[in-house]
Design a protein that fits this description.
The complex is a heterodimer of chains A (122) and B (230). By secondary structure, chain A is mainly α. Chain A folds into 2 domains: 58 residues, no CATH class; 44 residues. Chain A is built from 3 helices and no strands. Chain A is elongated, with a radius of gyration of 27 Å. By secondary structure, chain B is mostly helical. Chain B has one domain: Arp2/3 complex 21 kDa subunit ARPC3. In chain B, strands 1-2 form a two-stranded antiparallel ribbon. In chain B, a hairpin with a 5-residue loop joins strand 1 and strand 2. Chain B starts with 9 loop residues before the first helix and ends with a helix. The chains are: A mainly alpha (122), B mainly alpha (230). Chains A and B meet through helix 1, helix 2 and helix 3 of A and helix 2, strand 1, strand 2, helix 4 and helix 7 of B. Chain B: Its main location: membrane. Chain B: One of its GO terms (biological process) is cobalamin biosynthetic process. Chain B: One of its GO terms (cellular component) is ATP-binding cassette (ABC) transporter complex.
């Protein structure tokens, strides 16, 4: 593994550890429902502070179940990951193509033909 | 940081929408200008938006025993400046409000203000300050992304505290309460976001040197190279 790849792997490993450690150490055990969303906890806090508050607007569309909701969240992440992967794949391909073309150009003696003759298999 | 639909009183909702609107409109102009002037940057713009899409969909466990998600706005703010991030962040929030019932239309203004306005500007500010004082690129990127993430959740806490002051201890008491829920939970996640942003920036340095130089992230001379690879 190159030094670069090692550093990248290490970065990912730390991120993974930061996510897994709270679970592994049972940091949610003091709660009735461990590891709920902070957004939901804020809603609970609002009802504690202002018990009379009624939300005055409801979402236009609500996923009918937790499964559908997590599917949509997965879709969101997949869309983003897909675009990112496309970007880096395209860049890598372009770079390799460019390097190959440069190598092919360099391998042939410049006097062999006027300009780049087509069909020069590498 | 998503304030749920209907959970801000109408006056607050309207005020935050009014505060966010100029930033988003200005951002749309900046985005159009950027795409017209540099059509080849569209792809990287898409990648920056995609980063926000991925990170804001990932709910990650934190030390407080609850889950929260990063924002992913620091990367785009560093690459393309905060105004453009105001637009990309708003798109993400709209997607979540309309399809996931996460956040909402009435609270969109407030959520845009925290995630797409304050986060990117705070992160970008820290990044620029560190760069000017001679910090290596990746150190500045880490703290920029860290700040963008954490400041977003601090703003959400302030927004809720202003709307729902504690009957006994007032706005300050409420701020402590919401801050405990959001900001403390967010600290390890902000570290994660900083590391992930450094990772993506490292990949960009390897793959898109020309683009980064044009955007001013890498310097022309290449003296940057050493600091960047670290």
């Amino acid at each position: 593994m190159s030094r670069n790849a090692k550093i990248n792997t290490l970065l990912l490993a730390i991120v993974a550890a930061l996510a897994v450690l709270p679970l592994a150490l049972g940091l949610g055990d003091h709660k009735e429902e461990p590891f709920t969303g902070a957004d939901g906890e804020a809603e609970t806090a609002i009802t504690e502070i202002a018990p009379d508050y009624e939300p005055w607007f409801a979402p236009l569309y609500e996923p009918p179940s937790g499964e559908v909701e997590s599917a949509l969240f997965a879709l969101q992440a997949a869309l983003g990951a897909g675009v990112l992967a496309y970007y880096f794949g395209l860049r890598r391909g372009r770079r390799q193509g460019g390097a190959r073309a440069a190598a092919a150009r360099g391998a042939r003696p410049p006097a062999a033909g006027a300009g780049d003759s087509p069909g020069a298999g590498a | 940081m998503h304030i749920a639909e209907g959970y801000l009183p109408p006056v607050h909702a309207a005020a935050w929408a009014a505060a966010s609107a100029p930033f988003v409109i200005h951002g749309m102009r900046a985005l159009t200008r950027e795409v017209r002037a540099n059509p080849e940057s569209t792809l990287l713009l898409g990648a920056a938006g995609a980063f926000t899409f991925v990170l804001s969909a990932l709910k990650i466990p934190s030390v407080t025993g609850s889950c929260s998600h990063p924002t992913g706005t620091g990367l785009g703010a560093i690459l393309f400046r905060p105004p453009i991030m105001a637009v990309l962040g708003t798109i993400t929030l709209l997607f979540q409000a309309l399809l996931l019932a996460h956040g909402g239309l009435t609270t969109l203004g407030a959520n845009v203000f925290s995630l797409a306005v304050v986060g990117p500007w705070a992160g970008f500010g820290v990044y620029v300050l560190l760069r000017r004082s001679g910090a290596p690129l990746m150190v500045a990127v880490f703290f920029g992304a860290f700040t963008a993430d954490l400041s977003t959740y601090c703003v959400t806490s302030v927004q809720l505290a202003l709307a729902f002051p504690d009957p006994g201890s007032g706005v300050v008491g409420a701020l402590a309460k919401f801050g405990g829920i959001f900001a403390v939970t967010q600290i390890p996640l902000a570290v994660s976001e900083g590391l992930l942003t450094v990772l993506v920036m490292r990949l960009l340095v390897q793959s898109s040197k020309g683009e980064l130089t044009r955007l001013g992230v890498l310097l022309q001379g290449g003296a940057e190279k050493e600091a960047a690879v670290r």
